[in-house]
Amino acid sequence: MPMGTVPKLILVTGALGQIGTELVEALQDKYGKESVIPTDVREANGCTQLDVMDAEGIENLVRSKGITDIYHLAALLSATGEKNPDLCWSVNVDGLVNVISAAKKYGCRVFSPSSIAVFGPDCPKHAPQVTGLNPTTVYGKTKVVGEHLAMSSGIDMRGLRYPGLISWKAPAGGGTTDYAVEIFHAALSEGHYNCFVREDTRLPMMYMDDAIRATLELMDTPFDSLGTSRGGYNIAGCSFTAGELVKSIQRHIPEFTCSFEPDVRQNYADSWPDSIEDDVARKEWGWISKFDLDKIVDEMIDNLQ
Ligand code: NAD
Ligand code: AKB
Fold this sequence. Notes:
About 40% of the residues lie in helices and about 15% in strands. The chain is of the alpha/beta class. Helix 2 packs parallel to helix 4 (about 85-105), helix 4 runs parallel beside helix 5 and helix 6 (about 180-190) packs parallel to helix 8.
């Protein structure tokens, strides 16, 4: 570490979730195990229990440990959020306000994810970085508020509009895009999956390795290089329909079958764009994805087998 550099001490909220499970590992690899403090409302070995609704608890931890950076992952996702809209608002907005307040007081940098859920039905099907943000889900509304707070907070706060994330280390946490994770487990264990969106549903998706690398790269970029999209950069991975996902899995498991029985989550999926324009992230901090559909499927099957 260069002389005079303050060592990082990183707090991760929601660390036991789909992203946290892998981001904590990546941060520990980069900065050292002792530099990362994973927290979650749920109890687990090696994880400090912290509810993001507990403003005092966050502040005490930030002050007592000398936290320099907060990766704020605690949230309710779209499907769980629509079932519990008040709780979704409290955890996603009030929880974020608590994190920002502690960060402001103790000079921390904050990473807070946004989502493709910020877009609504009026957005072009290939979503530009700058467009009207009129989501229909409560979850999407909380993410729009989060992006505004990032820009108005007066601190170094950054975010990414993650697409649906596909990974094998932890289960997906109650979102609309969960079918693109569940399908692999079902394909390998049952040989069949009953998908809760239509076969022709096309959504922006990304492999977790790309998402983790995007997060680290964004946080490594000098603040002055970042423009007015800092609160939520569009990042594209790949875009495919549920039917195309099935076909790609059948390259490995030819006998795999999938039925389609759309439920309420179809409405959330239909309100989101098909694909993402990420020209601003490419220009400002060099973002480029590495995984297309077939490569994601190869990695998922290989790791889950
Ligand atoms: P997840 O549901 O898998 O994990 C969220 C974690 O937050 C869980 O471990 C949960 O126990 C914890 N949590 C819930 N309420 C809490 C509280 N009150 N206090 C502390 N912890 C609490 O979600 P994820 O997929 O890891 O998502 C992390 C972030 O990324 C969220 O902001 C989410 O909106 C965003 N995001 C995720 C995806 C995706 O596909 N996974 C896509 C776009 C955006
Ligand atoms: C969800 O489906 O809710 C998440 C997301 C795209 O934000 N995966």
